[in-house]
Amino acid sequence: MFLIASTLPLNDGTKGFRFNFLGTKGFVRLRKQKSNGFTFQKGDTFSQLHLGRLTLAKERKFSAPKLRHFAG
After folding, report:
1. CA separation (Å) from 44 to 29, 33, 62?
2. How far, in Å, are 38, 53, 71 from residue 10 at the CA level?
3. How far apart, in whole angstroms, are the C-alpha atoms of residue 34 and residue 48?
4. How confident is residue 3, by pLDDT bands cut at 50, 70 and 90?
5. CB 66 within 8 A of CB 60
6. What's the predicted TM-score (pTM) here?
7. 54/38 Cα distance (integer angstroms)
8. Cβ–Cβ < 8 Å for 30, 16
């Protein structure tokens, strides 16, 4: 668990940033198109909150941590 908050730019050319705040990882993205109001999605990797053009995504814990660092 990290005690330092950090932000990094997104590498896909969109407006937003990645964050690591007290061990919680995720990203914030400002999209071009508006969503239909307030929505919440829960996927395998991220839990996402959509608020108009703003998306806040938090990384979920993996059920198989052995595959998380497969390449390295």
Report:
1. 19, 24, 8
2. 23, 16, 21
3. 15
4. very low
5. no
6. 0.67
7. 10
8. yes
The structural domains of the chain, with segments of one domain joined by +, span 6-62
Concatenated DSSP letters of 26-48: EEEEE-SS--SSEEEEE-SSEEE
**Amino acid in the structure at residue 10:** L
Q: What is the pLDDT of residues 15-66, one digit of tens each?
A: 888 888 888 888 888 888 776 778 899 988 889 999 888 899 999 876 555 5
Contact 48, 40 (CB under 8 A): yes
Amino acid of residue 56: L
Token pair listed for 1 = 């668990």
